[in-house]
Design goal:
DUF452 family protein; seven-stranded mixed β-sheet; single chain; BioG; AB_hydrolase_fold; alpha/beta; 262 residues; two-stranded antiparallel ribbon; 9 strands; Rossmann fold; globular
Length: 262
């Protein structure tokens, strides 16, 4: 995993952003959270994370997106929960799953058919419309295609190993007959619950109902906010990675209610 500082001014708080698959810092380095250092994490070919960096901060505010929703709880498992505030956006802690993640066939087809052209189609599906896609192309990640493909392959291998899932010759997932896998499979990362989750009504990567199912057992509905946005949504990122951190608490809660009504 790569950990890239965008702002490093020895502030007492850190905004830690776990981006999605195929991402880098390019689309997200424009934001400036007030009174915080700001670090972006990406490239989940490994989930190794240098937690010693966090020791200097009094508070670590964590925003996760897409595959980052899965990666962050694993990377931060050893960090005291009282030091963290975790916010999920358009992702699940079970990234591959017919009921609570990306449907298995969709994931397998994406991986098996991945080409530079299909990657562009994926990015188009992330965006709300042609205007949003055009704007995203100006700040699209600058990573090597082979590296991106390897990342998706290793995400699948890591996830299926942790869940005790085997893959047959046709690419079908064979689930174990028992729950004796590991802590992640047994408790679905309950050891590091999210505080809030924002899920997009128009997300074409993670189905809305699957995201709802994923967070149902984690917290009450007032902390699960359905927003009118696609998988990638620049105004939501501006809110989550910048504007919300300078809002008084009453304004923040009011804004949440407005988002949930959209």
């Amino acid at each position: 995993m790569r950990q890239v500082y965008i702002i490093k001014k020895n502030n007492p708080k850190l905004l830690l952003f776990f981006a999605g698959w195929a991402a880098d810092e390019t689309p997200f380095k424009q934001y400036c959270p007030q009174g915080m250092d700001y670090m972006i994490c990406y490239d989940y070919r490994t989930l190794d994370f240098d937690t010693s960096i966090l020791e200097q901060y009094r508070q670590v505010n964590v925003v996760t997106w897409s595959m980052g929703v899965w990666a962050a709880p694993i990377a931060l498992a050893s960090v005291p929960k009282e030091k963290l505030m975790l916010i999920a956006f358009n992702g699940t802690i079970t990234p591959i799953g017919d009921t609570d993640g990306i449907p298995e066939k969709t994931f397998r087809d994406t991986l098996s058919g991945l080409t530079p052209a299909s990657l562009q189609k994926f990015m188009r599906r992330m965006c709300k419309d042609s205007n949003a896609y055009k704007a995203f192309l100006a700040i699209t990640p600058r990573r090597d295609f082979n590296e991106i493909k390897e990342e998706l392959e290793l995400i699948e291998k890591k996830y299926t190993r942790m869940r005790g899932i085997t893959i047959d010759e046709n690419g079908n997932y064979i689930y174990p007959n028992n729950d004796e896998t590991d802590a992640y499979a047994n408790d679905k990362c309950q050891y590091i619950n999210y505080d809030y989750a924002f899920i997009g009504a128009n997300d074409r990567i993670f189905p809305l109902e699957n995201m709802k199912t994923n967070f149902d057992d984690m917290f009450n509905d007032d902390k699960l906010i359905v927003v009118d946005c696609a998988h990638y949504d620049e105004p939501m990122f501006r809110f989550l990675l910048q504007d919300m951190w300078s809002m008084p608490i009453d304004d923040f809660l009011s804004h949440l209610r407005e988002l949930d009504r959209q």
